[in-house]
Amino acid sequence: MTTTGEVAAELTLRSTAGRVALAATVAASGMAALDATVVNVAVPHIGRDLHTGVTALQWVLTSYLLTLASLILLAGALADRFGRRRMFILGTAWFVGASLLCGLAPSIELLIAARVLQGMGGALLTPGSLAIIQASFRPADRAAAVGAWSGLGGMAGAIGPFVGGAIVDGPGWRWAFLLNVPVGGIVIACARAAVPETRDHHVAGRLDVGGAGYAVVGLAALTWALTEAGPRGWRDVTVVAAAVLGLAAMAGFVAHIRRTPNALVPPSLFRDRTFTVVNVGTFFLYASLGLTFFLVAYELQVAAGWSALRAGTALLPATVLMLLLSAHSGAVAARIGPKWPLAAGPLFAAAGLLLMTRIGPHPRWFSDVLPGAALLGVGLVMFVAPLTATMMAAADADHVSIASGVNNAVARAAGLVGLAVIPVASGLVSAHGGGRVTHDFRVALVIAAVVSALASPVFLVGLGPRRDRPSPLTRVHCAVDGPPLQPHPRRCSAALRPGRGPRPPVRQLWRSTRQ
Questions:
Q1: Distance (Å, whole) CA 362 – CA 103
Q2: What is the architecture of the domain spanning 12-208+260-514?
Q3: How confident is the model over 40-75, as pLDDT tens digits?
């Protein structure tokens, strides 16, 4: 991988430029992760301040996921073609500008529009942070840099509920967005000072803008129909029209990628049974998980009257378990094969969701929240790392990066569908009063548990006998909106130690910086 000139990009972790570049990528990905955490916690406060109901609050979450899920693959292609540093800085600036609009929005309509723009910036920003490390650091330091990116990003996810709750309870939910402005400014300054420009000089053919267009229209129309079906009903002409348009656009997307030489999603990926099975299972899992943290935070604040900080940190055990045990889970799956961890993990997660139906108007954290949060965390630990490793191993060497992007986009689209469908199906969108909110919250959790459990037979029946699977490099992962975007294994093979997998990321960074 080369820069725009003829000199290879050779950043080192021991150099000032290398550490500044690493800080920029970690801060950018942490900013996006923290924003997602804070918005889940802030939704009830947004509803009270802007005088709106659950349906509009759904759009605060889904509008961001919509543009992120539909544009993340196109954004990765743009970065490879026009420069990763350029797209990273553009995405950060775009994200910061949209965050400023979110923080200043005087109405729910303008907030939703700003969240759409924020999702566009996130799509440019998300794949760029890791791609910069892959392309800019010398091979000897690349594994440690990716490990630090993963480990420090995991810590950002772990502290997110504390920071988010404190912000919402303190200066207010608007500052959850406004704080992105100075952080983004620091990221841009660091990137301009230390990150070299890199691009893929082997890219050929035209960008598949048409494929991205089909995806945006299809996801937007279907999301609108599914969300508005609750208050309007399925007999409403606009709901039916939106559903038909969405289905037609998604059919057009499938037909488009089958006949386009440089399609956004190469259809050849799905000829591998394992790849297809993993993505079907991913859809069920993240349709359930993408909704859970929103549901619990909403119930604890609206029905139980908890503060944003208490509600935001209620499910912290699940995140802590992911932070501490995800690396070990990846190593176990590499030894015994991914089939059984992937089949068992969704069942543990579903059991955790069912246990959390104990949460009511007067919950006790130790008895009503902690058991379910712990079981949910065990489920996440069991399937997140093996899922990503299995998906990557199923793709051929030339399509590993795009395969990872597809899996990430599937997960985010699943979260989008879950947020649109389950609150409507449970009746939560029209619930008023603590008792009704609690009842519909419990129904929503049961539906989410069933959806999560559906992934288990998909993996159990769909995956074949044990095959050798590589351990994923970025295995410390605390986000619930999608699986981690993984680096190309051929470029980071130095991180893998035979039979044991990579060292824990933060410890690896510490050792590398002392050499």
A1: 32
A2: Up-down Bundle (1.20)
A3: 888 999 999 999 888 888 899 989 988 988 888 888
